[in-house]
Amino acid sequence: MAKKTAAGGTARARRMKQLLIPEEKILKHIVIVRNQRVLLDVHLAELYGIQTRVLKQAVRRNLDRFPDDFMIELSDADMDLLVSQNVILDRKQLGGSAPFAFTEAGVAMLSSVLKSEKAIGTNIAIMRAFVALRKMAINYHDILDILRSMRTEYDTKFDQIFDSLEQLIRPPQATRTLIGFEIPGSQRV
């Protein structure tokens, strides 16, 4: 049973709170690969405080836990795309072997492979970051819908304004009654 501290919380809860990583640090490492939001193994290893090779070894020992929708092994084209988009400054940052990219589900599965307190705290923080990203995406969709409806509404109003301005700029030609004599065979000027 966990020992209670004088402040009323458990010592484990305090340690977990100290281990949590700021959400911004995680969000900056989430990249898009093959239309999926992923974290690269090199960044996960940094967040977990372990070497990338240790993370890869743990994953390779448990490959059956990481189907294709949990983890992607990056191809040369994927790595070139990440470098060209300046997500990664240089391929050397990715190490010698093909890096792994973990989806949200893959990160969740890592918690069953890496069992340290740091790994548990890091996984909690990463899952919260993915949730925050989903919320932001929903907000962007809502804003986009509002902008589309405003555009439709205001396009109609602006059409009316432009019609009124055109009438002011070019007032309609009123038919005038001609005054004077008409000489047969001559043209009007």
Key phrases:
189 residues; 4-stranded antiparallel β-sheet; 4 strands; 55% helix; elongated; disordered N terminus; KilA-N_DNA-bd_domain; ORF6N domain-containing protein
**Rg, alpha carbons:** 33 Å
Q: Biggest sheet: strands side by side, in what order?
A: 1-2-4-3
Sheet with most strands? 4 strands, antiparallel
Name the poorly predicted regions. Answer: 1-8, 15-19
Total number of strands: 4
- Roughly how much helix do the residues carry, as a percent range? 55-70%
Structural class: alpha+beta
Q: With helices defined by DSSP (H or I, 4 residues minimum), what is the helix count?
A: 7
| N-to-C span | 109 Å
| Beta-strand content bin | 5-15%
Q: Which H/E pattern describes the elements? A: HHEEHHEHEHH
- pLDDT averaged residue by residue: 76
The shape is: elongated
Domain KilA-N DNA-binding: 29-113
Organism: Chitinophaga niabensis
Protein name: ORF6N domain-containing protein
Pfam family, one: ORF6N
Offer a quick outline of the entry.
The protein has helices spanning 11-19, 23-27, 41-48, 52-61, 76-84, 104-113, 117-169, and strands at residues 31-33, 36-40, 71-73, 100-102.
Description:
By secondary structure, this protein is an alpha+beta fold. It has a domain at 11-136. It is 55% helix and 7% strand. It has helices at residues 11-19, 23-27, 41-48, 52-61, 76-84, 104-113, 117-169, and strands at residues 31-33, 36-40, 71-73, 100-102. It has a four-stranded antiparallel beta sheet. β1 and β2 form a beta hairpin. The longest helix has 53 residues, at 117-169. The termini are far apart. The model is unreliable at 1-8 and 15-19 (pLDDT under 50).
